[in-house]
Structure formats: C-alpha cells, structure tokens
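Blinded run. Sample ID left blank on purpose so nobody reads anything into the name before looking at the predicted structure. Input follows.
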Amino acid sequence: MAEYIDNGARLGWLIAPLKKQVFIYRPNAPVEHLQNPATLSGDPVLAGFTLDLARVW
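Blinded prediction complete.
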C-alpha cells in the first residue's frame, strides 16, 4: 500500500475482513489502524463517500 501512496495515491484502505481490521494510508501521515469500524469515510479525498462495512464483516 505504501508503494501506491509513494506513486501518487492520496488514500488507501487495506481491509482485513477476517480480523475486522482496516489500515488507512495517506501521504505524509502514519498508517492509521481501526478495529471493527462500522463505516469508512472517504473525506476529503472522496468527498461525501462513506463505505458501510456491515456487509464486509
């Protein structure tokens, strides 16, 4: 995922469904780790987009 960020991606979500974990990658920021979030917001990169993870888990 870091390679995508290094090549210009502004947001990356690595979703581990079996462990109900999400890792959020952004340029110039530490990786954020979430445990069992209900939703993910794409703001500000994807303004107004929210991913409902209920069906993923």
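Unblinding after everyone has recorded impressions. The first strand starts at residue 12 and ends at 16.
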